[in-house]
Each structure stands twice: as structure tokens, then as C-alpha cells.
Specification:
The chain is of the alpha/beta class. 39% of the residues lie in helices and 13% in strands. The longest helix has 18 residues.
Length: 384
Amino acid sequence: MSTQTHPGIQMVDTLGQYHKIQEEVDQAVLDVIRSGQYINGPVVQQFRNNLAAYLDVPHALSCANGTDALQIALMALGLEPGDEVITPTFTYVATVEVIALLRLRPVFVDADPHTFNLDVNQLESVITPKTKAIIPVHLFGQSADLQPVLDFAKKHNLHVVEDNAQAIGSWYTFPDGTKMRTGTIGDIGCTSFYPSKNLGAYGDGGAIFTRDAELANSLWTICNHGSLRKYYHDSIGVNSRLDAVQAAILDIKLRSLDEYEASRNWAADRYDTLLEGLSGAHVPVRAAFSTHVFHQYTLRIEGGRARRDALQAYLKGKDVPSMVYYPVPLHLQGAYKGYGYSEGQFPVAEQLVTEVLSLPMHSELDEAQVSYIAEQVKAGLMAV
């Protein structure tokens, strides 16, 4: 077995990706600075137009970050304090954070043990007269099963807001064979351009998508202090804008998004092959209804938290970074204990947080790195 170490392996290699487009990015940033137009303006509009074309959605609006995107989406739906919003407990905190900030009530559902996305079979059990919306999260790079979500929403007259922060570019296939990009299927879709995302800025950024022109108008108004005409404010809004420097960078990276995601899929396929038949761990499941863009490549480690953590420590000693997404489900987070949930209510999520371990995943991984990482995973599982 090789004893070689690879201190250069990154969990996310934004710098390596930048080096490939450095000249183009540097020129675009300089052009923005020289233009003197740093907020909105033609560069931001061009990116919005290109993003809408890529996703085949009529309305793409930019904002300051992905959390703002979710908050603005819920504000545009006209929900009232006390209204309930269904969301998975196994996801990043931003999804439920905005629900709480708007004085809405989060209603959690458990995770599917295979895809880690929300378990659609639990939706009917949590519906109440106060339920007004559902936020499916497309976790780790593949879509939640949207057809049952849409059917459920139609039956109960609910809004659907897709949290697409981790799955931009993925396709959902409906039972009749038609396909649509995630984030463009519900009433509103939201995404983040945080630097580690598949389409990442060099700072914060976000976007909101809809096919409804009236909703698009409301979303845009909210983004801009509740105003469509300067100094005239028709509703309560926020200040959430994508700056022109980030838009210029994102517009360049958007042209390569399919290439980035092909590289991620190559790395995931190599991991699968090299870890095939691995005892004590399970590789990610690819749902038949969704393409996977592998924002994360997440293993499930048998044996619980102690063994998972021991493997993570072993990998760190071999210069292999890894991350636990996420160590605590949202219903057990201190900030959300006031909603009355307790340990044991969502057994799948509570088990996942003791088992999941994400390996390095980005567009710059090469054969030597992936092989070394897989080798250390196998050695580590034998050692712990």
C-alpha cells in the first residue's frame, strides 16, 4: 500500500478552478471597476439573462445570497405569522432560519435514507389547516422527488419553494419522461452562489427563479426596498442585490458549469469504482428521477458516530480532508427546540448525522488524488 501523502488535496479547490479562467476573470473585474457601475447595471442584467436561458426559465432575479433568496421567496408569497411551512430536518440551517425569521412555523419531515432528501411519504402526516408552503431541498446535488411534492401541494393548495442551493444544473425527470431543471419547477426556486457551490462567486450571491410574471414582479420589488420606482415604496422590502463584480465572475463561470459538473461526475464515478464492494460504508445513491451534480460526495459509515469520527481523524492524518454535513438535525438544534420537537421523532435524520462523511469533491480533482483518497478510505475503515 502506498505511503505517499497528498497535502495539496482540497475539500473544495476554488483557487485551482480560478487559475484556468484567470485571464478572463481578471479582465472582467477590471472592466467593471473601470465602468463605475457596481450595483445592478448591464453586467448584472446580462448574467441574469444568461442564467435564465441556461435554466430555461423566464424570470431569473439576482440577490445578495442564498439565504436572502429563500426569505424573499417566502415574503413574496404573502404568508402570515403562524402559517406553517414544511421542510426537511436534514439540511443546512438557512432553510429553516428564514421560516423562523418571518415568524412562520417550520414543520419538519424526516429524510429518505437513500437519497437524504425529504421523505415524501411523510407529507400527508404533517398537513394542518395552517400549512401554506413546502420547501423541498435538493440536497448534495440531486433533486428531491418533486412529482409527489407537486401532487401534494396541488391537493392542499400549497406553495412550493425549491431550495436549489446545492443542485443548480441538475435535471428532474417526471414520470411521463419530461425533464426540467431543478429550481424552475415549483412556484419559486432559490439558489446560492457561495464560493464553494457548483456555480460559486468570489464572495456572496444568490438568485431566485419563477415562471410567474406577477411573482417575479413581487420578488423584484422586495429585493429593492419594496420599490419599483426610486424613492417610491409600495411594500415592505429588503436590500438584497448581487454586485456587478460578482455577476461578471459568475457569467464567465456559467459558461463552464456543464463542464464543471461533468468533472464532478467523473470524480464520483471513480470514487464509486474504487470503493465498490467496500465493507462498512455505502456510496451515494443516484435517484432514477434525477441527474446528480455532486455538490457533495457523501458516504454512510456503518458503526455510528464513533467509527465515522475515527475514520475522519484517520483521513486527516493522511492529508485527506472530509466534512460532516450535517452533525445535528435541525429539530435538535438549540435555536429551534422551542417548536416542540424531541429526540427520536425523526430516526432517519438522527441516524444520518452519526454516519455521513463527505469526501473532497470539486471540478479540479484528478486521477491521482481520487485514487489516493479512496485508498485511504479503505485503509481507514480497516484501521478503525
